[in-house]
Design brief:
The chain has about 220 residues and is of the alpha/beta class. The protein has 7 helices and 7 strands; from the N terminus they run ααβαβαβαβαβαββ. Helix 3 links the parallel strand 1 and strand 2. The site of magnesium ion has 4 residues, from loops.
Length: about 220
Amino acid sequence: MPTFEPLDPAMRAHALAATGFMPPHEGDALYSAALAAGAAVPGLPLLEVGSYCGRSTVWLGAAARAAGTVLFAVDHHRGSEENQSGWEHHDPTTVDARTGKMDTLPRFRDTIHDAGLEDVVFAVVGQSAAVAAHWTSPLAFLFIDGGHGEEPARLDYEGWTPRVAMGGTLAIHDVFPDPADGGRPPYEQIFRPALESGHFALVSATGSLRILHRVG
Ligand code: SAH
Ligand code: MG
């Protein structure tokens, strides 16, 4: 296994300062996996589904730069079901007063700007399934952390995982094999089908993060 430079502490501080849901040790694991994938499959981009305010995006954008590639960050920036008003993960400061809707794009832009990653991180603002339907580039690395309901999780699996290049990496967040630990769709609609398809093999697990390699 090649060894890679650890993430620059100043860059890591930008990730930790950003609003979001990525625990530090899982972000570090995400960085290592993305950097390794970028090196294993040179010339192809990385792609994230579900950026929110750009927290995970900083780890991935830093990995893209270190691997000499770029990161596409797909999000409609209107929040998942569980981010809406009245739900557990709602942050009222993400609501746009003019529309009354969530809008995390300004916060995302601030995070990427402050981290100095605007040259390698490109926001793609839209519905994940609709973007996936028009996406043709193979990917060195795919991170799925978008809608955690059954349908969005299934659509992310169907729409995006075929784009992972042979030897590339699929990373999935919020995978909870034990229902007592959290919601099921990332486990049932993405992780299990990926393994059962025979196209992906499990490489590592850190918290609720799963790293799989495309093997077939
Ligand atoms: N990775 C982030 C957390 C992502 S939260 C972090 O590290 O903090 C999930 C994000 O997925 C939200 O920003 C939400 O807007 C987005 N999302 C949910 N369903 C989506 C869909 N169908 N299309 C595009 N984005 C979606
Ligand atoms: Mg998550």
